[in-house]
Write a structure and sequence with these properties.
Blueprint (H helix, E strand, L loop, with lengths): L9 H8 L3 H17 L2 E7 L4 E10 L3 E4 L2
Parallel strand pairs: 1-3
Antiparallel strand pairs: 1-2
Helix pairs in contact: 1-2
Length: 69
């Protein structure tokens, strides 16, 4: 079961709730880093084989954007 910190922005929580648990665990690590720094949001990239999440200067803090890189 995924334990979500209370200090995550609402968009992060909504995104996690829509994911399967394995991917949510991966994204949660990046989200914790985002909250710790308080500067950048999350970019979730779809690749042919898998999905990846990373901090992105192009995404405002507290937001999650899905796309390709």
């Amino acid at each position: 079961m995924l334990t979500v910190p209370e200090n995550l922005p609402p968009a992060y929580i909504a995104f996690l709730e829509a994911q399967d648990e394995d991917f949510a665990e991966t994204v949660l690590m990046v989200m914790k880093q985002s909250v710790a720094e308080g500067k950048y949001g999350i970019l979730v990239s779809d690749h042919t084989v898998d999905r990846q999440a990373e901090l992105s200067q192009e995404v405002p803090f507290g937001e999650v954007v899905e796309g390709t890189r």
